[in-house]
Each structure stands twice: as C-alpha cells, then as structure tokens.
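Why predict the complex rather than its parts? Because the way molecules touch one another can change local conformation, and only a joint prediction can capture that. The input here totals 1020 residues.
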Amino acid sequence: MSLPKISSSSAIQISRIMRPDDANIAGNVHGGTILKMIEEAGAIISTRHCNSQDGERCVAALARVERTDFLSPMCIGEVGHVSAEITYTSKHSVEVQVNVMAENILTGSKRVTNRATLWYVPLSLTNVDKVTEVPPIQYEKKELEEEGKKRYEDQKLERMETKQRNGEFIVPSVNQEEYTVGYSQSSLIHLVGPSDCTLHGFVHGGVTMKLMDEVAGIVAARHCKTNIVTASVDAIDFHRKIKKGCIITISGRMTFTSNKSMEIEVFVDADTLVGDTQERYRAVSAYFTYVSLSKEGKPLPVPQLVIESEEEKKRFEEGKGRYLQTKAKRQAHMQSLTQQ
Amino acid sequence: MSLPKISSSSAIQISRIMRPDDANIAGNVHGGTILKMIEEAGAIISTRHCNSQDGERCVAALARVERTDFLSPMCIGEVGHVSAEITYTSKHSVEVQVNVMAENILTGSKRVTNRATLWYVPLSLTNVDKVTEVPPIQYEKKELEEEGKKRYEDQKLERMETKQRNGEFIVPSVNQEEYTVGYSQSSLIHLVGPSDCTLHGFVHGGVTMKLMDEVAGIVAARHCKTNIVTASVDAIDFHRKIKKGCIITISGRMTFTSNKSMEIEVFVDADTLVGDTQERYRAVSAYFTYVSLSKEGKPLPVPQLVIESEEEKKRFEEGKGRYLQTKAKRQAHMQSLTQQ
Amino acid sequence: MSLPKISSSSAIQISRIMRPDDANIAGNVHGGTILKMIEEAGAIISTRHCNSQDGERCVAALARVERTDFLSPMCIGEVGHVSAEITYTSKHSVEVQVNVMAENILTGSKRVTNRATLWYVPLSLTNVDKVTEVPPIQYEKKELEEEGKKRYEDQKLERMETKQRNGEFIVPSVNQEEYTVGYSQSSLIHLVGPSDCTLHGFVHGGVTMKLMDEVAGIVAARHCKTNIVTASVDAIDFHRKIKKGCIITISGRMTFTSNKSMEIEVFVDADTLVGDTQERYRAVSAYFTYVSLSKEGKPLPVPQLVIESEEEKKRFEEGKGRYLQTKAKRQAHMQSLTQQ
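Output of the joint prediction:
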C-alpha cells in the first residue's frame, strides 16, 4: 500500500463517525460539531501551506468564515467527511474552501450537507503580533485567480464594516465595582448530553458537581485574579433528578471571605425544555470554599468582599457562622488527636 | 476459565492519569475533576451492591455528599487513585466512603488528597419513581453498624433541613413573558483549556464556533420548545484572538423570527482574568439561523418573537432585512441555475 | 471544487491535529490515541464495505489486531493521518491494512509512525449474534488474493490458540518492593458510556485499546519513573463483545524486561452489572511493549524486573521467548530487505 502524497497545496480530508455526544436528543448532529471539523481542516491546510517555504514558522489563525448554509442535518452513526482546499492567497491571507458530506455507511447513501469558505492569516510562532507572508498558489486558469481576488476584496470590505458591530454586553457584570458580589457572580448553561447520564437517562451526580466546581472556580478567580484551588465543599443534597435533554443553569455568587478563603454559593437549576411538561426547578445547591495560591503554591490573602445590600450582609454573616463552626470542629479534632 | 467473583461489598478502585484538560493553567487539577471520579466510584459500587441479590434491577442515584476537604492539590501527570467502600446500608440507602490518593509515578511518592462520604438511593430501572430495597451488608463489629446508623440519622435530619435552602434564582430569566427576547436570552461561560488552543496558545476558531452554536441552539430551543437545527450561519469575523486561561462568555439573544426560522445574535466576550493586564473585550459576534423540526423532521411554524422595546424593534427590522436579502439572493441563484 | 468519490472498497483517510490531552507530559502522543484512530478508520471502511450490497444491514465488529509496531512517537501539534484500505475478504471477515503518518505542518516533514492490520466480522444490526456475509473484493493480481488467504488462515489459527490465554485475576497490592511485579501492577475501571459504543450498543474496539494502552503506560512509568512510550502491541484478539452499561476493569502487570524494553500484559474484564444475567468475563488480553526515553528522546536502560514467584518466573521466560522471536523476525526482515 502506497502512502498518500502530501504537497503544500494539496487537499486534506477529515472523516469521523458521528457519536451520541455530537448530537441533540433527536439524533441530529449539532451545527457546532460540523463547524469545528470544518475549522480543523482549514487550520491544517492553511498552516501547512504558509510553512511550505523557508522562512519564519507560523500558525494560521482564523480571521473570517463566510456565510454557511446547513443543507441537511447529519445523524448519529453517519460518517462526516470534511475536505478542504486552498482556493486563493493574497500576501497575508489564505482562502480555504470546504465541503462537508454525510455518508450513511449502512445504506451507502451520501449527500452534501455544507459548503464553507474560511479566511486565515499566518501569525509568527515567535511573535504573535507579526503577520508573516503567504506563499502564492498556482491557479489552473487565470479566471480562478481573478475571481479569488474579487472575493478577497469583498470580504476585506465587509470585515471593515462589521468591525463596528459590537452592541452592548448582554451580561452586564463589567459595570460592577470590583470585589462586590455582583462583580464576580457567574453562571453557565449546560445542555445535558448522553455521556452525562446514567442508564436511566438521568445526569450523574459527578457531572453536576464538576460543573458546580467550575462555576465556583470562575467566581473565585474573578474575585482574586490569581491561581485558585478548591479547599472544601459543604454537604450537597441532590433534591431532584435532572433528565437527559434538560438545560441546566449553574450559578455562583460569593457569600463570605475570611483572610485566606472565600465561600461561594452555587445553585443548579434545571429546565425541561422539550417535552410534555415544561418546568424549571432548583435541583441542587451547595457552598464551595476556595483559597488563592501564589506561584509557589503558598496561600495568599483574599481581597475582602464588598457588601452592598442587607441580603448580602445576611448571607455574609451566615457564611461567617459556617466558617467559624468548621474552624472550631477542626481544632477540636486536632486536640483529640494530640491527646490520644 | 473461572474468574474470581466480586462480592457485592468488596472495594473498588478507579485510577487514571491527570491530563492537561483536568487542570487549571497553574497545573492544579480542578476539584470538580476529583469530585467526578469520586462519584463514579460511588455509583459503581453502590449499583453493584444493590443488584447483588435477585430482584428488581436498579441504578443507584446520588442523594447526598457529605462535607469534603481537599487536603492537597493534585497535578498534571500524577495518577489519581479513588477507592470506594460501602460502609453502611439502611433499607433504602447506601453509604459509600471514598479515599483519594495522588501518586507521582516518576518519584513514587503518594499522598492522600481527599476523603468523602456519599449516600445513594437505588431506583428501579423500569420505574424510576420507585426506590428498591438495599441488601444488608455484613459488619466486622457491631459498633460499626451502630456508628453507621448514627451517621444515617444525622444526614437524614440535615437533608430535611437543607431542603428549604433555595433562595431566589440568580438568573431571573424565568420571570419573563414567553416569546420575548428576555425569555430565551442565554449565556454560557467557558474556561479556555489546553486542548482548546493552537500551538500559539490561542483558542481554535472552531472551538469558539462550536460554543456559539451551542448557545444559539439553547436560545432557539427555549423559544420553540421543539427539536431545532442550525440552518445557516452568517459571516463571522474574528476580530481579536482569545488566549489560553481566559474565561469566555458566549451570549445569545433572538433578534428576528420569520414564519419558519429564527435569527439569533451571538457574542463572544473574553476576560483575561489572571495576568498582568486584565481586560474584557468583544472577540467575535455572529448571526445564526435556526429552524424548528417536527418528530418526522418537517419544518414547523416558529412562534413570533414578542418585541418589548425600541432597541429590540430596531434589531428585528435589521434581522428582517438580512432575511429578505438572503432570500432574494437564493432566488436569483436558483434562476441562474435553471437558465443555464 | 469536485467532491471526493467514495466507492465501497475505496480507501479512507482520517486526519486530525494532536492535542495536549492526546499526549503524555513529555509531549509524546499515547499509543492508545493512535490505536483508537486506526480502529475508527478500520470500522468505517469495513462497515461501509459489508453494507455495499443489498441485504441485511450490519456493523463491522473488531475481531483481531495483528502485532503493531510504533516506529516513531508523534508529538502535540503534529497532524496524524490514518489511511485504511481493505486488502482481503473471506466469507465472514474483512482484513483492513492501515498506515499512520505524522506530519509536522510547520516544517513540512512527514514520517511513517505505524502500520497495522485489523480483522473485522460483520454482525447483523437486528440480531447481533448473527454474522452476515461479506461481499468479495476485486484483487489487482491473483497473488494478492493468495497472500491474503494465507494471512487469513494464519490469524485464524492464532486466534484459536490465544483464546486459551487467560490467566488469573490481577489483584492490586500496594506495599511492594520497587521493581517487583506487584509494585508497578495497576488497574483502572471504566463505566461504558454511549459515546464509547457502536450503533449496536457495543464498545468500539478502539476505545478498549486506548484504555489498555493507558494502563500499560502507568505500569511502565511506575517501573521506570521516566518518560515512556509504546513501542509495539502484540496481536490482540477480541473474544467477547462488551455491552453499553458494563463496567470494565483493565489490569496490567509487567511480565518481562530486556535491557531497553518492558513487556506488560493487559487484561480487560467486563462486568454486566445491570441486566437479566449478571456475569463477569475476560473480554480481551494483550501484550504491550514500552521503552523508556531520556529528555532528548534517546532510549534509556530499563531497570530489571525483580521476580518473586514461580508464576512470575514462568511469565518472564515466556516474555523472553516472545522478545527473542520478534527480534529474530525483525533481523530476518532486515536481511531480506538488504538482499533485494
């Protein structure tokens, strides 16, 4: 068997089987899964091309994706074939065209599901602010180069225009004062996938706890702006089960700070989006304690939480109560150990 | 070959190497990664035990985790060993005690990093609302049973009490009226990990697009409450790079609905949390179009977006403009095809 | 841009960038990551071929992987290209040959890292105990068919033989002396999830091999306390299928050390926890060979295994036999190459 030859401008093909985790509960592969495969193919082919001549080593960075239509959904068990080709180069950018095909390996049927055009810019490996030069490609016909140049000019113009489109921030946490509860408060959404679930179709408790710790860590990092690690987790009760296909919102807010620790309250709320009965309910809640570490791994002082309301003050006092209780328990435990 | 039998009460051990994606940029394994391993060990041993006698098949569901301390952080490249043992059973619940040890396989050093206690309840596989009976375990000494019973009573009491702790919803989107922009508006946070990044240490464009599609899909599903799929993505410009260790917030809101499609605007904002210069900036934005599908895969009518402000009205009109423009282009393209 | 044509017997290529999570801390991609990609390519091409004629729909299940050498380690950031081709078919089995190439897209250098031969058996989608018929392939020359037939007969014989290799269970022990078998012996447990499985609901062979390589790597690292990489994998027979929802225990122990290599025996045992019939059975077993590398990537001497029992001595001698046989084969192969 001979090895496939690879030239700097030759096409690349990425193929893989679509798995349950790539799809929604109806079995349709997420558009995002396909976009990720498309970009991986584009990044490989353009990085390879931009390094095909002697000179500075670079990595191609995605600058723009043209409008993309999803002509037909892909399904679990089908094989997605993504093939990419370089179709135009300017001095500092590469145009890649990508075709996506779905193949049902059981019936043998194939269909085109996507076509996409991506623009890459090569950035120097040693100096990421430097754009390196792109080696020119050979065109089969002169018209192909001219059409490419037109696409290049068009996208350049559009990029200029859309650079303005920014709008306000949807999540307004930046407008808050530092060290307040609102400043570090965070929440994330997670769409429950097959691998998150037991044979019953309910979310593993461990998956929920991992997401809770993730949110708590983001809150702690936003507050301290240092390397933070989990020190302890309060008892967690799992009041209600969370079903496959739900959307869960995990929210965290700081409740208390001592000299060297922070307490973060985390809530998990489940939305049964699709189905007969739609409801939203609190599934789990817990307190996480974090500490801030220096680069050498030593505990750092924690900036004190700025309290702005009666509610926050009440929660702070309750947190202080839990903190002092734990401290007392630990000291009693230490004493009992030394007296033995 | 006869394999040694595993007795229902025997211990279980889960071990695995800690990988870059399990840890933060300082190399400390996330507490959540360890909590997830702990729970996996607990779920296996308690499910095995609850099915050890003839009778209804069941899966053990996590009901409660006792307070857990993280004595020392684990690092990338170390092997985490999680060992679990059943220490008490009541009629309908199982107590599992778990020890976590970190082993540096290069130096041979080992240390205890965690101890945890988890409570499971067996749910019937055929009827998830039915709690099945737990086979009793044998205790080496009578005192062990008595101590277990005390822990059981204590946690039962605490569970009753904490069932009340709920507080308000941090993200108040539920209070919104259905079909408004605010009702379906969603955002998710992602902590950029090593596997999200290029050799430069910048996020792959494909990773960003996958998250954008995920948020857009959640917005669309919240609006329609049906099976939804990506129909197209507008041109996306990547204005600014996103660095490893950043926190990115991906937010989506509905801008426009036609009879059979929805347009969702998605923003990606990056926070450079840790480091010398802290800033928050808009990295990417784009419009996604989704359609709603019936169980048979046919397009369904989309509920009309309810507009509540001048801002929303302006965005709706702009969305309508994009929709009509795309439609016109497609018709022109079709005509050019038929005339060829 | 024209679409790639796919015929039932045409080759397939799977390519992707190697990420941090695919590799050890020294940056070398795990052998298991590559075995998983190899098996994915093999499963796609053989399932496609077995469904290329009208008749019962089936999924190709991995039955055996021939001895595989890892000629050179792959690194993070390189692109792995896995190309597979069907080279022989019998009535009920398919032989797939796979080439793996590493491409450094920054320097343009490419090298072959692996060659592998896999055997698949098609199982009916509706009745997994039924093996369906394989459509014959066309051979370019008559000799190719004859050579294939010989390989088919050889592997059939070997499969019969190795079906016996089972041995006792590996039970972990901690407080062992360094360099003994017990000291490095390791096992890990994995709960089979949906994304580990084929459309049938059985674990992909590639998923199993990845876990086997992970355990073997932990055993090797514990013994050497250095950067270790997979050098080769002995032929692996997949005696029994593993079903979704099973718990699998993967155990490894060192059997033999030469001056510069270690042989590790790995067992995969499946527990059908939930379901009508609960049983535990040996599903797969294999020998992995690892080498120890210095920071510069040069092979290091391996500490000799300390033998403590008659059993261990017997396994050591058998390992030595396999080692000498492989060495002799390689030398014969080299001579035949130089004489050509």
